[in-house]
UniProtKB/TrEMBL annotation:
It comes from Brassicogethes aeneus. It comes from the Eukaryota. GO terms for molecular function: odorant binding. It holds the Pfam family PBP_GOBP. Keywords: Signal. The lineage of its organism: Eukaryota, Metazoa, Ecdysozoa, Arthropoda, Hexapoda. This is Uncharacterized protein. InterPro entries: PBP/GOBP, PBP_GOBP_sf. Residues 1-17 form the signal peptide.
Amino acid sequence: MKHCLIFLVCFFVGVLAQENFKDAFSALTPEQGAKCLTASGVDMKEIESIKDKMENPSENLLCFAKCMAEEAKYINPDGTVNHEELKKISSYNPCMANIERISSCSDIQAFEKCTS
């Protein structure tokens, strides 16, 4: 129960607090979010401090964001970007069409650059 509560706080206060990505992760389950929390090792304080932009994010936070994008099917298992899924979110920007692959956690910053 505690693990689920931590995820819900993270999910709603952190990722969904970013106005640009409000609908992007709304379909994810608590299990998917918990998986990303565990896999990334991100610190709760860092997630809670996210505002509209990720300024100087840690590697753990970038890995958390990449994992969430993978879980939401915006990134395919081979690292290629699933543009058909991305086009379904309200924050989709044509700039995202130029992003072909997300291989490393730091590559996820390309999405943030498109929404700035």
